[in-house]
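Hi there,

I know you've been waiting on this one. I reran it after we fixed the sequence typo, so this is the corrected version. Both the input and the resulting structure follow.
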Amino acid sequence: MVKTFFGRLADAAIQAAPIGSLLCMILFYITVIAAELLRVELSAVIWLYVLVALHIISISLMMFHKLVAGYHKYDQDIVGKNFVGLSKKCRIFSHALELHFNRRVNASLDEFRLLGSEYDDSLTESEKALVSFYTARCYDQLRYFPNALICYEKAAEQGFDNSILPFLRARCSGANGDTNEALNLYNEVLEDETSPFRNLVYNDIGRMYLDRNEPEEALKWYNRSISKRLSLAEAYGGAAIAQVMLGEINEGERLYREALLNHIKDPKGFTEYYRRILNAIILEKETDRRLKKISSDTM
């Protein structure tokens, strides 16, 4: 917690330095003009002390303003003006958020749950919604999808209305096997013309059907993404997996190469996954061939 506090202090100092220096110069010029008007004569050493003092005061004021105003290093667009200031709940939230973005998800989850249970009475409604949302994000990343969905829905009930919410709820619903609810939520995202997640929807639905071992249905959605050129590399990658699962190995290889050429995210992980599926299909085909041969030989 001490490390987090001093981290926030350092961030505030960096943010405050330019504006604080400008404020210092303005105050110094005002002081010089006032001294001239009042015919006050000061030595160069005194003026140096005045300049240093004004600089310290100006930067300190701006640092305090930044801390109270609630500068958040992560997810500023989501957190907004919530959890601002130096109170214990604000420090816990900032630390939990930092843990979350540094992939220490279990530790982050513990602190968000602590906020939701022990500090519930001191939280505003929007702060409660944020705690529910980030608790859900932790469960989501840990693949505890039922728990994540419960917390996402709680966040929605508490007034969390960021456009990311229906998209994440759709993903969790799909992971929980509720395809109809997932499709409804994905359609909600598609209907929102301001949502930045619209271009991810087709690939997400495709992945949902791959996870359900329905490659034919998955391929339809990946092809839609390819035709609209949305998240193209990931669409090629998903389509490659679907084609291989359908036994179309040559087409799968072509799409696999397209995914790599279009710079798919995590090419190493994707290649390992693709090769694992490909080897399983080849082994399955070889097993079927041998069984048919054995069956024909015994007839």
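Quick highlight: The chain has a mean pLDDT of 86.

Best,
R. S.
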